[in-house]
Amino acid sequence: MQSVSCQSMRAIEDRAFAVHSTAEALMDEAGYKIAQKILHYYPQLQHATAYLGKGHNAGDAIVVLQHLQQAGWTVNLQTPLRLNDFAPLTQKKINALGSEYLQNQQPPAPKSLLIDGLLGIGASGPLRDPITTLAKSINHHRNKLDCTVIALDIPSGVNGDTGEIAKNAVLADHTITIGYPKIGILKSNTVQHVGALSLVTLPELQPQNAELAHHPHLICEHTLTRKRRDFDTHKGQTGRVAIWAGSMGMLGAAELSATAALRAGAGLVTVFIEPSLYPILASMLPPEIMLRPCTSPLKILEERFDAIAIGPGIGSPSEDISNQLIEVVRQTSVPTVLDADMLNLIANQQALPELTHHCILTPHPGEMRRLLPNATRLSREETVKQFLELVPVTLLYKGARTLIAQTNSPLFINSTGSPAMATAGQGDVLTGLIAGLCAQKYDQLEASKIAVWLAGEAAQIALASGSETIETLTAGSILQHLHFAFSQLPRTT
């Protein structure tokens, strides 16, 4: 979903009002959809406190509280303002909820939900009281009471155009933005304040082309689809994946990548492994995955595969194996995902010029610094741009907000994920997912976008289900919850 400036967002809203929509209708629709997002990701919290400024952002928060209350939640307000201080529409929504909530304000409960309804896209510059005091209160209770903070549209104190962070800006765990993503909250420097990102679409809001030009795109469920299979589809039609992964002490990487490719829907997955490691890995892999003892990566080129993945857990191969792996990349014409130790091998052998358009690279910041040493002096966005000027690959620059792009494509920014994913094996799962989707004839860019969104969504669903916590989530948990993430995406023929 393309992002817009705050000025463009206001122009889009004004056109909707001029034609057929009202501010109240849009507020009611947005509030309902935001509440549904909260119930999807945070069903266990059951207690919500909305922090209110004067404007319509506060009105959105009140509508959200109404729907949460109808779902059985306890709701509460925090604001020093009196009823007459609010915008007229927000006053109406407070009265509908019950004006007694203004008189009977209670401190937030531990481990509850805090809703930032302080400021919308019209605000800029430093925070001023009473907003400063309220924002500080949100951040205090987030830290001291282990509360979860939801920002509506943008976190208060974050500039929706520039991404500039004001002093005492709200630290949100999840921002639910309305209509279209705002440019500022997609900037890498805002990650700590924005948290996870979700988009609430309103069909009444239709941009003009000029309002969308040259801005980054947000990867979200509204822009992704999964393929519908014909009833007579067989495994030969859903793709063959070859994986060169694993070494002594790191065979789990091969198991995770292969299982992810299988769970992504690939028809046939084959792992190639050094013969001495065959018995160990054979005992680890699901029975649906084929395992091939092999002394030469060039064997991969002798069979027909629709996608290849190289790198997870391969360690530091011998010079001969390293040269053969580079040769596989050079000779194959199918999508080839290069991850982990393969990226280090490419950096060490200065083989970046060997890479072509069929390569998909998935570096984390450390690997990127080895591939592109001056990345330390660049922003994440600048790093992607400069890297793609050197090599015509599909690039996934991993991080709290993974960036995806190709030469001459827009920059795509992932919306899903959690700090719970800061564990070993997550990249191995992502590699397998991308390869499995490419094998099913998703193009490289689309496969990359879907895979990174699925992995992040699966993590958030695992946390929402109560089966995992920030500390206990593993790469295996992603695989266990992947089917729930897939179910969020619509099918297309």
What do you see in this structure?
The chain has 493 residues and is of the alpha/beta class. It has 2 domains: 6-215, YjeF N-terminal domain (Rossmann fold), CATH 3.40.50.10260; 229-492, UDP-N-acetylmuramoyl-L-alanine:D-glutamate ligase (3-Layer(aba) Sandwich). 38% of the residues lie in helices and 15% in strands. It has helices at residues 6-19, 23-41, 56-70, 88-97, 100-103, 131-144, 191-194, 209-212, 251-263, 278-282, 319-331, 341-348, 365-371, 380-390, 426-439, 444-465, 475-480, 482-486, and strands at 47-52, 74-78, 113-117, 148-152, 174-178, 196-200, 217-219, 226-227, 240-244, 268-273, 290-293, 307-310, 336-338, 359-361, 394-397, 403-406, 412-414, 491-492. The strands form 3 sheets. It has a 10-stranded mixed beta sheet, with helices on both faces. Helix 2 (23-41) crosses helix 3 (56-70) and helix 3 packs parallel to helix 4. It is elongated and about 75 Å long. The two termini are 21 Å apart. The mean pLDDT is 96.
